[in-house]
Design brief:
alpha/beta; four-stranded antiparallel beta sheet; 17 helices; 45% helix
């Protein structure tokens, strides 16, 4: 067995054995297989694909490439929630406290962002004093005491995925169902949760551009999760426009607080309540998802979810008064309004370009070690279906660097499509994939 023969077999469309997949993955992780050979292998997989058995094997091989987290010291049913990523997706900041307020222990391992905005860790670290670099024993103690904690994900969990993903990102091999599935599920299965909830995005601002591809990805991940003994459910959700109105780290924290106060935008509120409801159901605190959703709504209405967010912040060194005093958070020095050039209805809002604009402003990274501006980003004033008059503000670009803000402003000037006739606004939640539907 050698690397070249494995590459050529996959290039020619043959099914690989578990041993062949293990040989090349372990070799690349250890350094014996060089970048150029792994790049060729990934491109062969990208074009030829992998069948279900190959995908399961790839996922398991990456899962056992590093630490397997033991969360048995945390009381209750631990539910992990993962989103495939999207513009303005700050649901973890909302869903975690809501589920915890309803009795589900939330032991969340999150990463930093690469691309449009920071990841959950970056968003939380825009809160003064908040620490995500904590010992695992401290992390588990916080969950047992407070019901919720968020820790930065280390390179010791699925290190094969970390190294392979970095290569996929620079070789144009990200958008492949088997590679995406194994990347996500290897980490989820190694992270120690008892159940997994997946938010699979589709649309212009997501990896999966069509609902059909999103459903295929969801079905594959749900089947792998359930086969591994973790009850897994996926929601298919829309990403043709950004989620909520805020895109950028501290801006998204502000919006998450608004949602927890019952004052947030309708779309992010609806999705967060639904996701939290499914987490509550998977955590055995509700008999059905609908009951879980009702419990989630009640937690927001009675203030217990907001209080749980404050507990999360104070438990990890942050100032909980950010929920009442906005001046405690990073604020941008420069604000530029993007105004409508004609009257009508917003019929187009390219989520991908809104994300790129926030990255231009300083809210995201182009390279993994780039510093980000925690206060930079965009605040949308109009979304799909909204009516505007010529001169109305469509969006405000925020930042601290004139050149960056100018680049973001230029991008945002061509993001909105305004027409005389209103068009149908896409449904936010497009479908649900569970054990039954994945087995069809």
């Amino acid at each position: 067995m050698n690397t070249v023969s494995i590459i050529t077999r996959k290039r020619d469309g043959y099914e690989l054995s578990r041993d062949e997949i293990k040989y090349i993955v372990d070799g690349y992780t250890s350094g014996s297989v060089p970048d150029y050979q792994m790049s060729a292998f990934l491109m062969a997989v990208y074009f030829r694909g992998m069948n279900k058995r190959e995908t399961v094997d790839l996922t398991d091989i990456m899962r056992v490439s590093g630490d397997i987290v033991d969360l048995s010291g945390i009381r209750g049913v631990k539910v992990d929630k993962h989103s495939t990523g999207g513009v303005g997706d700050k649901t973890t900041l909302i869903v975690g406290p809501v589920a915890a307020a309803c009795g589900v222990p939330v032991a969340k391992m999150s990463g930093r962002g690469l691309g449009f905005t920071g990841g959950t860790v970056d968003k939380l670290e825009s809160i003064p004093g908040f620490r995500t670099s904590i010992e695992r024993e401290v992390f588990m103690d916080l969950v047992n005491r407070n019901g919720i904690a968020v820790i930065g994900q280390t390179g010791h969990i699925a290190p094969a995925d970390k190294k392979i993903y970095a290569l996929r990102d620079v070789t144009g091999t990200v958008e492949n169902l088997s590679l995406i599935t194994s990347s996500i599920m290897s980490k989820k299965l190694a992270a120690g949760s008892d159940a997994i909830l997946l938010d699979v995005k589709c649309g212009s601002g997501a990896f999966m551009k069509t609902r059909e591809d999103a459903e295929k990805l969801a079905e594959m991940m749900v089947e792998i999760g359930n086969s591994a003994g973790r009850e897994t459910i996926a929601l298919i959700t829309d990403m043709r426009q950004p989620l909520g109105n805020a895109i950028g780290n501290s801006l998204e924290v502000f919006e998450a607080i608004d949602v927890l106060k019952g004052q947030g935008p309708e779309d992010i509120t609806q999705l967060s309540v639904t996701l939290a409801g499914y987490m509550i159901y998977l955590g055995k605190k509700a008999r059905a998802p609908r009951e879980g959703i009702m419990m989630a709504m009640q937690a927001i209405e009675d203030g217990s979810a907001l209080e749980k967010f404050r507990t999360l912040v104070s438990g990890q060194g942050g100032d909980p008064d950010i929920t009442e005093v906005s001046g405690l958070m990073p604020a941008s020095r420069i604000k530029k309004d993007i105004k409508a050039k004609r009257s009508g209805y917003v019929t187009g809002l390219d989520a991908m370009r809104v994300g790129l604009a926030s990255q231009h402003a300083g809210a995201g990274r182009e390279e993994k070690d780039d510093e980000i501006d925690l206060s930079a980003g965009n605040i949308l004033k109009k979304k799909l279906g909204d009516k505007d008059q010529c001169g109305d503000v469509l969006c405000t670009v925020c930042g601290n660097d004139e050149l960056r803000v100018l680049a973001a402003e230029k991008e945002m000037n061509s993001v909105f499509e305004v027409n005389a006739a209103v068009r149908e606004v896409p449904d936010l939640i497009k479908g649900i994939v569970d054990r039954t539907s994945a087995d069809r």
